[in-house]
Amino acid sequence: MLAETEPAARPIVMPWEYVAMRRRAAGMTIEQVAKPYWRRPEHQAEVERNIRELETVGYRMQRHFFGADMSRAYSFNLDVYRQLCDTPPDQHPRLCLACGWDQWTTQYDTYGDDVTWSEADPDLCTRCEQLERKKVIG
């Protein structure tokens, strides 16, 4: 009789990793991401510092402060971010381990079709598979 093996556990994506993956997938620098969030030049450095903080290992935005919504700059799902901050890892949403895409976020692959999960590697979305992106988690 063969022993049943447990499926390999999916790597855990932390909130700061999610923010960085989504920004890098958009091909943007911190400075580019910050631009839509400041109006006066004297605020630029503070906004850039706050965005860097979102990508700092161990950092979680407090629930009462929703400044983590980066969707003015790039595709970002605040609900996913909140889940990564507030729920145990076994309740985290499934994310692409290269770009952080989730199945509730509209994204298109290189052919203009809706992104879905790769059949060849279930840890990747079809866009990352087509772009031959490497996993940044796991």
Account of the 3D structure:
This protein has helices at residues 15-25, 30-34, 44-54, 78-86, 126-131. With 138 residues, the protein is mostly helical.
Short description:
The chain has helices spanning 15-25, 30-34, 44-54, 78-86, 126-131. By secondary structure, it is mainly α. The chain is globular, with a radius of gyration of 16 Å.
**Mean pLDDT across every amino acid position:** 90
- How many helices? The count is 5
Number of strands: 0
Task: Outline the low-pLDDT stretches.
Answer: none
User: Helicity level, as a percent range?
Assistant: 25-40%
Basic shape: globular
Supply database-style keywords:
138 residues, mainly alpha, 5 helices, 30% helix, globular
Secondary-structure map:
Elements lengths: L14 H11 L4 H5 L9 H11 L23 H9 L39 H6 L7
